[in-house]
């Protein structure tokens, strides 16, 4: 545990804090997360941050989102740098931060295997390390109060940045069978719905891209996402609208590697995570809009993870159908069409006490 103080607070920085709290633009929500993460009950008092890594990172989010705070914090690099909040000098070593992160998550019992969102949510709640991070995130993105989209996006950034990549990947790519309502509710909690994702009415995907390109932080993440996941698009067309309109989404290869997944996860704290639509657009704009929708929201890019989900669905079906199979005394044949997103046909063949599974893709 690192103990640090907030002192030598300038009038300007205190004034910024007051403006932030009263601005009504989402800054207050981010500040509330800062106070929770850093245990700042009264500014100027000595405080002990139990989670110094999380504290540092959420303050960096504050400075990135509201640049006026950069004069009050140290931002010499991306990762430490910010224990200077409101007057404290910089001085946390990167190696110490990296080690502390490993120690924190080393205490976590979360597995890294693909599971349903309900299983992932339950494990996170039961895990002390994950629960602590999740509670801060849900406090801002709660559906029980008026949603602040920017505050929720900042909380999502804080939540997913402050965990190992394997854990973030497990949470973001979890899924549910179609009729499992409890699982879908858990998925919405983990994925920031409806606060940071669902806007009524939904914007067009073209508008989402345009808004992103006007925001420096979002534009950088979108550029990285395209270069890591959709190299064919970047190499062939870059930003040439006429060229992009000639592309057919089914012929667009996706790299689907670890860098691509990391870039996709990085998009989650931006407007690119919002649900968007191509309905009600002029016919001439439909192809480009559908291309952007495919790039932003299609899970086809992550085929290996879809295979993991297929196994989850099969296990669920086996659990339900085993009693039926056990009554078959001789060779039997059973066929089920999975009524879910994967759309595969699963054949169950019963031979004595053995079940052979064949998935037709």
TrEMBL record:
Pfam families: GDNF
GO cellular component: external side of plasma membrane; receptor complex
Molecular functions per Gene Ontology: signaling receptor activity
Subcellular location(s) of the protein: Cell membrane
Keyword Cell membrane assigned: yes
Cross-referenced SMART domains: GDNF
Broad class of the protein's primary localization: membrane
Boundaries of every GDNF/GAS1 domain copy: 117-195, 205-301
Source organism, top-level taxon: Eukaryota
Keyword annotations: Cell membrane, Glycoprotein, Membrane, Receptor, Signal
Keyword Repressor in annotation: no
Biological process according to GO: cell surface receptor protein tyrosine kinase signaling pathway; nervous system development
InterPro entries, sorted: GDNF/GAS1 (IPR016017), GDNF_alpha (IPR037193), GDNF_rcpt (IPR003438)
The family this protein is said to belong to: Belongs to the GDNFR family.
Name used for this protein in its record: GDNF family receptor alpha like
């Amino acid at each position: 545990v690192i103990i640090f103080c907030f002192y030598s607070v300038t009038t300007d920085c205190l004034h910024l804090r007051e403006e932030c709290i009263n601005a009504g633009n989402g800054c207050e929500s981010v500040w509330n997360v800062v106070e929770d993460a850093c245990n700042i009950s009264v500014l100027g008092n000595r405080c002990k941050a139990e989670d110094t890594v999380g504290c540092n990172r959420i303050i960096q989010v504050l400075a990135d989102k509201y640049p006026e705070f950069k004069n009050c914090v140290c931002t010499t690099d991306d990762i430490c740098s910010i224990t200077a909040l409101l007057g404290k000098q910089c001085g946390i070593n990167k190696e110490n931060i990296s080690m502390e992160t490993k120690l924190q998550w080393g205490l976590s019992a979360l597995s890294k295997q693909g599971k349903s969102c309900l299983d992932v949510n339950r494990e996170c709640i039961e895990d002390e390390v994950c629960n602590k991070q999740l509670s801060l995130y849900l406090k801002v993105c709660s559906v029980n109060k008026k949603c602040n989209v920017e505050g929720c996006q900042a909380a999502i950034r804080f939540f997913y940045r402050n965990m190992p990549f394997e854990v973030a990947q497990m949470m973001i790519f979890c899924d549910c069978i179609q009729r499992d309502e409890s699982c879908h509710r858990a998925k919405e909690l983990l994925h920031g719905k409806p606060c940071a994702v669902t806007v009524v009415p939904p914007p067009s995907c073209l508008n989402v891209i345009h808004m992103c390109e006007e925001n420096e932080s979002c534009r950088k993440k979108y550029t990285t996402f395209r270069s890591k996941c959709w190299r064919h698009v970047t190499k062939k067309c870059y930003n040439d609208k006429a060229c992009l309109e000639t592309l057919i989404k089914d012929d667009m290869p996706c790299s689907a590697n670890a860098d691509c997944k990391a870039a996709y996860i990085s998009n989650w704290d931006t407007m690119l995570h919002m649900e968007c639509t191509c309905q009600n657009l002029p016919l001439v704009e439909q192809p480009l809009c559908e291309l952007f929708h495919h790039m932003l929201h299609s899970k086809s890019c992550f085929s290996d993870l879809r295979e993991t989900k297929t196994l989850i669905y099969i296990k669920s079906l086996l659990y339900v159908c085993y009693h039926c199979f056990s009554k078959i005394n001789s060779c039997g044949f059973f066929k089920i069409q999975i009524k879910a997103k994967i759309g595969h046909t699963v054949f169950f063949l019963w031979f004595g006490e053995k079940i052979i599974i064949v998935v037709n893709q």
